[in-house]
Amino acid sequence: MRHTAARILAVLALALLFIGAIMSVDWPDGEMDQTTSEDVGQTLFGDSNATGYGLVMFLIGLLLLVAMLGGVFLAKEEKE
Question: 5 in a domain, yes or no?
Answer without folding.
Answer: no
